[in-house]
Amino acid sequence: xxxxxxxxxxxxxxxxxxxxxxxxxxxxxxxxxxxxxxxxxxxxxxxxxxxxxxxxxxxxxxxxxxxxxx
Length: 70
Hints:
Blueprint: H1 9-22, H2 26-41, H3 63-68
Helix pairs in contact: 1-2
């Protein structure tokens, strides 16, 4: 699909330079970088936190604090 993006000049120059250094087209570099960025931010299935002992209460905390303990 064709689309138009309005990029800041410094970003456009960085992308063109990267494409030239890699011997790729601007389109190839932009598509790859967008795909990589989306793959990093896409939520994948995450395992549930493991409870060490049956019947033990989980202390109250934020979502991030619970996941940081893994």
